[in-house]
Amino acid sequence: MLYETIGIVRPGNIAEVKELVLTAGKLILNQGGVIRDIKNWGTFLLPRPISTNQQRHTRGHYFVMRYDASIATHEEVRRTMKADPRVIRTANVKLGDGKLETLSRFGGIPWRSLEEA
């Protein structure tokens, strides 16, 4: 199945974001999955302040990862991201129904910059 994970990590250190993506990527690849795309969206204000791990966050570093994996692998990625104290929030979405003709409709991960608006 094709999944998309949008992660928000505490801002300030790009190495933390890289380490989180690397950890999730290793989990996916070690269990026979395929990473389709990874995008770094950068640091933005959160829609509302979020409190996690006794810290209040108003900004977050966003990234998106799209990958093919089994349900068990996807659940392991979700558990790993949720347990990490550097992660403010994640959202996971299953894209399509696993059929090739459905998956071919999903292209790259779009992002419209503020300059284009």
Automatic annotation (TrEMBL):
Compartment list: Mitochondrion
Gene3D superfamilies membership: 3.30.70.60
GO biological process, one term: translation
Chief localization: mitochondrion
Pfam families attached to this UniProt entry: Ribosomal_S6
GO cellular component, one term: mitochondrial small ribosomal subunit
GO molecular function: small ribosomal subunit rRNA binding; structural constituent of ribosome
Keywords assigned by UniProt, alphabetized: Mitochondrion, Ribonucleoprotein, Ribosomal protein
InterPro entries (alphabetical): Ribosomal_bS6 (IPR000529), Ribosomal_bS6_sf (IPR035980), Transl_elong_EF1B/ribsomal_bS6 (IPR014717)
Function: Component of the mitochondrial ribosome (mitoribosome), a dedicated translation machinery responsible for the synthesis of mitochondrial genome-encoded proteins, including at least some of the essential transmembrane subunits of the mitochondrial respiratory chain. The mitoribosomes are attached to the mitochondrial inner membrane and translation products are cotranslationally integrated into the membrane.
UniProt record similarity statement: Belongs to the bacterial ribosomal protein bS6 family.
Protein name as catalogued: Small ribosomal subunit protein bS6m
